[in-house]
Design brief:
The protein is of the alpha/beta class. It is built from 16 helices and 20 strands.
Length: 527
């Protein structure tokens, strides 16, 4: 997903810094304008980005009670918010991950509160449901609710997804809106809500179980124990460390990282949590920071640096605290958490970060809704779509309507994934030519197989994302992307084959033809 970044400082007049940054473009466009209440203007100017709260009139007609539940990991903040949701007449949960939405829907239905599950790629509806659990991008801003919860609200500062959290914050029309997250987001949220007229209350929480920073590093992987989680920040390192730990025959490892399909991540977490499983050690990326309930005794940072897509840098205070806090989950097998590093020279940064407050957020993502984009295009008829968004350098070449271009541009496709970006462009090209996109035009069912190498695994993960993208588009352009069931079934096969690789059973499907994406024609689209 892509968006602006809005700077909301503590200056005398609040200002918006609108930044549109897309990984497949080198340019960054900055625009600064004062943020104002707009109360003196009776007519809404749809080209004015300084008053985003006016984009959601249904929410503005309510006097919302907003409760911020803030505190560290394992402090019970989300638990208390969900209890309010569970007792409400109608409600909505908005989470950053499908895993979290699944978990909440399961919890509410188990408590006999019928709850629908709605994500970009799924619709699981329950008869009589007045509650829904959604990914934040799917937050409903057109209906009234008694109660709503936005989880991990500090993500409104995320450069790529923050705008979805800002949209939910400003747009959800709920009598009570509960926000869960880091205390670092409180000043920014209070500043944003000054113009909405909402009642704002802040509740602070303390960690329920101790977290003990160790003074001694791990030193060697031969010192790994049951319940340990080794954290690193690349797929290559994850598999290198897994192989190193398993080489002595004492432990088997589960793995969790961001590009694994959500279903596979859940399965790997389940294997690690299961006391009867042989997988007693976890090797993971910072993907463990949210969305998975894990019985971790000790977090071990193999490094305190990560490549963030631009540069290799030290982990931030917020990142260190989010990851370290996963050790010692309340009411788990390991009620006291420990955290250390592989190397002794990394310990000072770990210890100082755990003692420091997270830096206060200064920016929230902002992205105009389609209605505003449409009005702008009507006023600037000679501007191409890429001149409006600074993103659609490729999509704008296709003869598509504004709404279709908008959909392709906000689709869940990272342009730094070669196979996924090719899939997106191929879908857009085929749609522009025929108005109908059959999955078999770029993918032959029955061609998937268990990967033999880490590179093969990475390719299979990308293929899963292409199939996931097709399902996402099928929910929005149903008649034009009719092979939703086929794509979903092939996604399930991807999950199975990835798990076979991770479990290291060496089991192979018969050799079949591989995925065929027209790479040369797609590359030429960028030239």
């Amino acid at each position: 997903m892509r968006g602006y970044s809005t700077s909301l400082g503590n200056e005398e007049s609040l200002r918006l810094l609108l930044i549109m940054k897309f990984r497949h473009l080198d340019s960054i466009s900055d625009m600064k304008r004062p943020y104002s209440s707009c109360n003196s203007t009776p007519n809404i100017d749809f080209t004015d980005l300084t008053c985003p709260h006016t984009w959601y009139p249904k929410a503005r007609r309510k006097h919302r009670k907003i409760v911020l539940h803030v505190g560290p990991t394992n402090s019970g903040k989300t638990y208390h918010a969900l209890k309010q949701l569970e007792s409400s007449h109608s409600g909505m949960y908005c989470g950053p991950l499908r895993l979290l939405a699944w978990e909440v829907a399961k919890r509410l239905n188990k408590a006999r509160v019928p709850c629908n599950l709605i994500t970009g790629q799924e619709r699981d509806e329950v008869d009589g449901a007045k509650h829904k659990a959604v990914t934040v991008e799917m937050a409903d801003v057109d209906s009234n609710y008694h109660c709503a919860v936005i989880d991990e609200i500090q993500m409104l500062g995320c450069k790529t997804r923050g705008f979805s959290f800002t949209r939910a914050l400003l747009g959800i029309a709920a009598d009570e809106l509960h926000l869960c997250g880091d205390a670092a987001a409180v000043p920014l949220i209070q500043e944003i809500l000054k113009v909405t007229g909402d009642e704002v209350e802040v509740q602070y929480y303390e960690r329920l179980s101790p977290l003990v920073p160790l003074k001694v590093p791990l030193g060697s992987f031969s010192n790994v124990q049951t319940g340990d989680c080794i954290v690193t920040f690349s797929r290559h390192e994850i598999y290198r460390i897994k192989k190193k730990i398993q080489s002595d025959g004492k432990h088997l490892c589960s793995v969790v990282y961001g590009s694994l399909p959500p279903e596979t991540r859940t399965r790997q977490a389940t294997l690690f949590n299961d006391a009867s499983s042989e997988c007693d050690v976890l090797v993971a990326s910072d993907a463990i920071g949210m969305g998975l309930n894990l019985n971790i005794s000790r977090i071990i940072f193999s490094t305190m640096k990560k490549f963030d897509g631009v540069e290799t840098r030290d982990l931030t205070v917020s990142e260190i605290k989010q990851i370290a806090g996963r050790a010692g989950r309340y009411n788990s097998n390991f009620p006291i958490g420990e955290v250390t590093c592989l190397h002794e020279d990394d310990l000072p940064l770990l210890h100082s970060s755990l003692k420091s407050p997270s830096p206060t957020l200064e920016r929230a993502g902002l992205f105009p809704p389609f209605d505003l984009m449409y009005m702008y295009s009507r006023l600037h008829t000679k501007s191409g779509f890429h001149q409006i968004l600074k993103v659609a350098a490729v999509i704008d070449e296709f003869p598509l309507g504004l709404h279709e271009k908008y959909l392709f541009c906000i689709s869940p496709a990272q342009m730094d994934d070669e196979i996924l970006s090719q899939g997106l462009i191929q879908f857009a090209e085929n749609y522009s030519k025929k108005g109908l996109v059959r999955l078999r035009e770029i993918f032959t069912p029955g061609t998937l197989q268990v990967p033999k190498t880490a590179a093969g695994l990475q390719e299979l993960e990308s293929i899963h994302k292409v199939l996931d993208l097709y399902v996402w588009l099928s929910f929005r352009l149903e008649d034009s992307f009719p092979d939703q069931e086929l794509a979903a079934s092939q996604k399930a096969i991807c999950n199975m084959l990835i798990e076979e690789f991770l479990e290291g059973q060496g089991w192979q499907k018969p050799m079949l033809r591989r995925l065929s994406l027209r790479r040369s024609s797609l590359r030429s689209s960028f030239s």
